[in-house]
Design brief:
Number of strands: 17
Distance between the termini: 117 Å
Largest sheet: 6 strands, mixed
CATH topology of the largest domain: Aminopeptidase
Helix content: 25-40%
Order of helices and strands: HEEEEEEEEEEHEHEEHHHEEHHEHHE
Radius of gyration: 28 Å
CATH superfamily of the largest domain: Zn-dependent exopeptidases
Structural class: alpha/beta
CATH architecture of the largest domain: 3-Layer(aba) Sandwich
Shape: elongated
CATH class of the largest domain: Alpha Beta
Number of helices: 10
Length: 432
């Protein structure tokens, strides 16, 4: 009986251990579903961004197929809750579909009409956003995004509105978003540039979408830009901080603690916007890039000094010199590149200014004046002599024109013998 009791207790212990193993292994073996909550798609002429909002971290893979061209996204244990995008802008995205090629795998397919470069990344939760799978696409095409009216003799200015899309940038007390303000300034500056003889503008973005820092500077390099201007509106922990600033690239460290802080914040925008900060280029290529930046930095400081001087006519400057730091967006080889802080959006007074059409006009006008001054200081500047005439464009008023050139409405009226504020499109106004 004693032996039998021992045998029985041994078997019971074995069964108990087996039961415990099953119970403990259950959560390990069971895979929680990952819900696709929303799909957001932005498309352009040669670029697209597909944001897939997920309920949590996921195991995934992305690959491309040909004949026909398509991008395939497989999400392990994925469940579809979101609606598929139906509107496909541009001429190279054909549509999107979903299915389950194997049990437990959700497959999303984007149909294309040509080969595309793919950059996928799973983004961790940031701010109001949870896990996001970003698929950045760039079509293999000879099509250039420069306006067709551009000629080889045009002075091309690439204008970059900072942040965008999932990256709002700084936010003021009244809810003003940096990405929206700087886009308005950029668009206005582009219109001004395009109205100048011999000059043309190219926007890195014209809508509310995000572009990686590398892609922004590449637009300048690939299109042989003469200058690159990135527009921002800074934030600071002290509301009292105010004034405009201009920054250039540095390879030897920041010229001030503020410049270092700003560069760190702006470079980190890629994480919020959806692009890995890791440089995928070979080390040798990066070293060659750095060598090519020496001349660019010198010219960038000259460009920055000219723009900063013009901004001084608009109002207070936060710094009287061009500051420098390691801004990733300014690393466009052989293209003089600056970052303009149009004001502190965290300062209530400057937030109100940034919401003002007239102030944005002043900022855009000062940047343009600085660019033209920089060009004319160069021996090979292709611009014609400075004209003292402004041709009225659609939507302009005397107040807007005055803001652009930093002169009063009364001065304009006096110079042009105007008895009222009424002006007409095409009218030629004398300038001081």
């Amino acid at each position: 009986m004693k032996n039998l009791s021992l045998v029985s207790s041994g078997r019971s212990a074995q069964w108990l251990m087996l039961l415990l193993c099953v119970l403990l292994a259950g959560p390990v073996w069971a895979k929680s579903p990952v819900v696709v909550k929303q799909i957001r798609l932005w498309t352009g002429s040669v670029e697209a961004q597909l944001f897939i909002d997920l309920s949590g971290a996921a195991k995934w893979k992305v690959f491309s197929l040909v004949e026909p061209h398509r991008v395939v996204i497989d999400i392990d244990q994925g469940q579809m809750e979101a609606a598929l995008p139906t509107a496909m802008e541009g001429d190279w995205l054909r549509g999107m579909r979903s299915g389950h090629p194997t049990p437990g795998v959700l497959r999303l397919v984007v149909d294309l009409d040509r080969k595309a470069q793919i950059e996928p990344v799973l983004l961790p939760p940031v701010g109001v956003h949870g896990y996001r799978l970003l698929i950045a696409l760039r079509a293999k095409s000879e099509v250039r995004s420069v306006p067709q009216v551009l000629t080889p003799n045009d002075y091309l200015v690439v204008i970059d509105a900072g942040h965008g899309g999932d990256d709002p940038g700084a936010i003021g007390a009244r809810g003003t978003r940096e990405k929206s303000v700087v886009l308005k300034i950029a668009r206005r500056l582009a219109r001004m540039v395009n109205s100048e003889p011999g000059m043309r503008a190219l926007l890195t973005r014209s809508q509310d979408h995000y572009i990686s820092l590398r892609a922004r500077r590449n637009i300048a390099s690939e299109n042989d830009a003469m200058v690159f201007v990135s527009i921002h509106a800074d934030a600071f922990h002290r509301e009292s901080a105010k004034g405009t600033s201009v920054y250039a690239l540095s390879r030897k460290g920041a010229t001030s603690a503020l410049a270092a802080r700003l560069a760190k914040a702006e470079n980190a925008a890629d994480l919020a916007g959806g692009v890995s900060l890791k440089d995928r280029s070979p080390d040798v290529a990066e070293a060659m890039l750095d060598m090519s930046l020496d001349r660019q930095i010198k010219q960038s400081r000259q460009l920055g000094a000219a723009v900063l001087a013009m901004l001084g006519r608009v109002g207070k400057r936060h710094s009287a010199r061009v500051e420098q730091a390691g801004f990733a967006v300014l690393k466009a080889p052989q293209v003089p590149s600056i970052l303009v802080e149009s004001g502190y959006i965290t300062n209530p007074e400057e937030e109100s200014k940034l919401r003002s059409v007239l102030y944005r006009e002043q900022i855009a006008g000062a940047i343009l004046a600085g660019i033209k001054r920089y060009c004319r200081d160069q021996l090979d500047c292709p611009l014609p002599p400075e004209r003292k005439i402004h041709v009225v464009q659609a939507g302009e008023s005397l107040s807007l024109i005055g803001a652009r050139y930093s002169i009063s409405v009364n001065q304009l009226k006096s110079l042009n013998a105007l008895t009222s504020d009424l002006i007409r499109v095409g009218q030629r106004l004398r300038l001081p």
